[in-house]
Design goal:
It is a single chain. By secondary structure, this protein is of the alpha/beta class. The protein has two domains: about 210 residues, P-loop containing nucleotide triphosphate hydrolases (Rossmann fold, 3-Layer(aba) Sandwich); about 60 residues, Alpha-Beta Plaits (2-Layer Sandwich). Helices cover about 30% and strands about 30% of the residues. Helix 5 runs parallel beside helix 6. The longest helix is centred in the middle third of the chain and has 16 residues. The radius of gyration is 24 Å and the shape is elongated.
Amino acid sequence: METVLSIQKLTKNFGKLCAVNHLDLEVLRGQVFGLLGPNGSGKTTTLGMLMGVVNLTSGSFSWFGETATHHTRKKIGAVLEHPIFYPYLSGQKNLELNAMIKGADPKNIAKVLDTVELTARKDDKYRTYSLGMKQRLAIASALVSDPIILILDEPTNGLDPMGIAEIREIIKKIAAEGKTIILASHLLDEVQKVCTHFAVLKRGTLMHVGPVDDVGKGEEIVEVHAYHDDLGVLLQEFVGSASIKRESGLYQVMMKDGFHSKDLNHFLFDKGIVASHLATRKKSLEKQFLEILSDTSHKS
């Protein structure tokens, strides 16, 4: 797959503060790539450097294998902060003005309004829009030049649950059209639900990078309960048990590689025990995220 963004040792210092520290990353075409980290982790600064609005201290990056220029940035649509729209103009008119400034084809406007689900409100004045609609118009504005890459900085910030769900669905729809998306967020749920890959930043340092689907791989915990006095002792006899602990009246069995809940169920059944509760638990992104952030090593 084509590398659309390559970052090497990217660093930004603000006086004595190191906001981004020797960052190395690659984003491939078609990925929905999440930059995940708490506030102050360097996500917005990184995106600012990539878009040329923040000067880097050292390191380098390239778009599509080329040094960033005005020409390469034309292939990128970005929502880094709330764009300036005219409150007395309609959504349609604001986008027409935006297209003119960017030299984009005005024929794209109808399509992007449909993508962000604002067609029905396109003739209403911007000042009548809800916060969620304003954010959707900002995304439409970034899409009007039909970019290859879309960059979104905290796209659901300040939105209510319905607004968050709407933005998520729009991001999925844009990704399904084949666009590469780079998304900065401090929300684990957002990254887990819309991203294919993610990187975790902590105080400007890369702590982890990989596919979202790999979260929880290699660790399977089976919760089990059965009406048997010596269940804890029996579970230790099961060859697939790596460790066992009791929590809230249930036994939590950490499985060895290659063993699953069905194997444990067979084992109990062979002992004449029928489990009243048997459930598999994978490590959540939240648990992995917290482990990564508490990790003192440079990179996991």
